[in-house]
Amino acid sequence: MNKLLVSLAGIALTVSAAGVQAGDVAAGKAKAGTCAGCHGANGISAIPMYPNLAGQKEQYLVTQLKAFKAGTRDNAIMKGMVAALSDADIDNLAAYFASLK
Fold it and tell me: pTM for the complete prediction?
């Protein structure tokens, strides 16, 4: 019985450490057209003042997009761009750009 509890606790820790926040890459790609103007069609910006998004860590992208939306990261352009995004949209965009290399 104790082994079963230890095993279940280990599984629970593994699941929570892995996170359940993985977005849908295909849905993110479908939504990413608006991002291409500044960040490039494949997440690689041709304009030096705009960062590359391709290959960034998914959680980092989620955190930054939510910060722009909440206004805790101040950028007038990005605030307007993320205003209508749902949490699912943000997760999907982050998954898409994180999947690019």
Answer: 0.79
